[in-house]
Structure formats: structure tokens, C-alpha cells
Amino acid sequence: MLGGLEVVHVPDIRDSTKFIEKLRTKHGLKTQYACDCGAGIGRVTKHFLLLHFETVDMVEQNSQFLEAASSTYLREEKQNGRVGQMFSLGLQDFDPVKGRYDVIWCQWVLSHLTDSDLVKFLHNSAQSLKHNGMVCVKENVASRGYVVDSEDSSVTRSAEVYESLFKKAGLKIIEVQTQTGFPDGLFKVKMWALQSIEFN
Ligand SMILES: C[S@@+](CC[C@H](N)C(=O)[O-])C[C@H]1O[C@@H](n2cnc3c(N)ncnc32)[C@H](O)[C@@H]1O
């Protein structure tokens, strides 16, 4: 799921945990219901979100990953209801229920959306938050502009590009943190917590 870079898993979970704890203690984030976007088989759900949230929904474009999650990787959590709904669709088509989530967590997936789909997705996500809920984005960032990978049709955006798209979607930045402890030679990774300018 991490393209052979299992070495990033431990520092990834460690810094995500610090980030969510900061959102809880400094910004009063509640921890009842999260949604893991671009979930894959549920690495982030299993090792991070379920440690902090009572229930976690998953959205993933590849239905085989969700099947692996419910039959094997997250079987018990699916059976006992801690993993809730599994949506087998692309984020560009995800129209979440309004007012449902405390956190929408998007990690290493937004590089697969076009700018316009990303803006629409972020806008819809913000509408699906409870009061004081947050959209969290954790993504690789380029040093400037866009870096296109024609092999997997992904695009790595700079932090400035992301931040201008957040603004376009009507979101403001509540907190931002840079990932630490990754091996040299990888893209820098940033985490943002976002809320709607309109509703919060
Ligand atoms: C690099 S993996 C990251 C998985 C997980 N977020 C993690 O950090 O372990 C990217 C995942 O996003 C999924 N994906 C790609 N494009 C997507 C889209 N448009 N909507 C939803 N999921 C997508 C892929 O199928 C894959 O499971």
C-alpha cells in the first residue's frame, strides 16, 4: 500500500497521532466518527483512526481493497461495527451525508484528483462535518508548482498550490504540521487541518 516504503509506516503513524492529539487538546476536536478517504485496505484506519475514533467509514475506488479489508485485514472491526460504511467509489463521486463526521482524513490520495475534482470534493467534505469537525489532508508536497508522474497519472502539488485550492473550496487552515523522520530522497509530507470559512 505504501509502494514498498514500509519504513515510513512507523513515523507516519507517530506524527499523525501527534497531529490529532493537538487538534483535540488545542482545538477541541471530537473523536466519535471519522472517514478514511482513499483508504486502500485500511492501513490508516487500523493503525491510526480506530485508535482515536469510535467509528470509521472508508472510501476507496478499488473495490478489491475494500473486500480485502472486510474479509481479512479489518474483519473483526467490520463485524463489531467499529468500521462502519465502506464506499466503493472515487472521491470525485463521493457525496457524503451532511453533518456526519468529526474528521475526514485524506492521506496519499489527493494526487489522483484533478484540481477541479479536488475543490469539489473538499467543499462536499466540509459540508459533511459536524460542528467543529475538520477535514485533514496528509500529502506529499513538491517544492514548487506541480510534479506530474505519468506512470501512475498522479500529480504532486506544492504546499502553495494545495493552500490555494483549499481557499477555492472555502476552507481555512486551522493547523499545519510537517512530517518528520522519513528517509532522505522522498517528497516532503505535510498535514493540514481545515474547516469551512462559512460554517465554523
Ligand atoms: C498510496 S495508496 C494510500 C492508501 C492509504 N491512504 C494509506 O496511506 O495507506 C492510494 C490509495 O488511493 C486509492 N485511490 C486512487 N485514486 C482514488 C480516487 N480517485 N478515489 C478514491 N481512492 C482512490 C488507491 O486505490 C489506493 O488505495
Automatic annotation (TrEMBL):
GO cellular component: cytoplasm
Enzyme class: transferase
Binding site for S-adenosyl-L-methionine: 38, 43, 91-92, 107
Molecular function terms from GO: N-terminal protein N-methyltransferase activity
CDD domains xref list: AdoMet_MTases (cd02440)
UniProt keyword Methyltransferase, yes or no: yes
GO annotation terms (biological process): methylation
Reaction equations catalysed: N-terminal L-seryl-L-prolyl-L-lysyl-[protein] + 3 S-adenosyl-L-methionine = N-terminal N,N,N-trimethyl-L-seryl-L-prolyl-L-lysyl-[protein] + 3 S-adenosyl-L-homocysteine + 3 H(+); N-terminal L-alanyl-L-prolyl-L-lysyl-[protein] + 3 S-adenosyl-L-methionine = N-terminal N,N,N-trimethyl-L-alanyl-L-prolyl-L-lysyl-[protein] + 3 S-adenosyl-L-homocysteine + 3 H(+); N-terminal L-prolyl-L-prolyl-L-lysyl-[protein] + 2 S-adenosyl-L-methionine = N-terminal N,N-dimethyl-L-prolyl-L-prolyl-L-lysyl-[protein] + 2 S-adenosyl-L-homocysteine + 2 H(+)
EC numbers on record: 2.1.1.244
Keywords: Methyltransferase, S-adenosyl-L-methionine, Transferase
Family annotation (Pfam families): Methyltransf_PK
Family matches, as Gene3D superfamilies: Vaccinia Virus protein VP39
Annotated family: Belongs to the methyltransferase superfamily. NTM1 family.
Entry protein name: Alpha N-terminal protein methyltransferase 1
